[in-house]
Please model this.
Amino acid sequence: MSRIDNLKGKEHKLTAEELSKGGKNSAETRKIAKMFKAAINDTMTDADLKEMTKKMISLAKKGNIKAYEVLRDTRGEKPKDKIEANLEVSYEEALKEVESDEEY
Model:
């Protein structure tokens, strides 16, 4: 089999049962997350939040990298992940290269 044949899509179509399971699991996961968030909001006071923030700042100042990252990300200063791509090669050129190469 040539490599060009490997590029052809071999789609897996989900059955109605598989789709149903995915939807039910997703709904259950959202329900659990909502309950967890509500439990935290019900039990955590503003004073608790301030105390935890002060502790996190104290840990970051002592060199705890994870504490620093959490504080930085919470402030909205999280660095973006960079993905670089060389798109100078056209699709046709890449296809010719794949077709001209011998099989492994």
The chain has five helices and no strands. The helical segments are 3-6, 16-43, 46-61, 65-74, 91-100. Residues 45-79 form one domain. The chain has a mean pLDDT of 80.
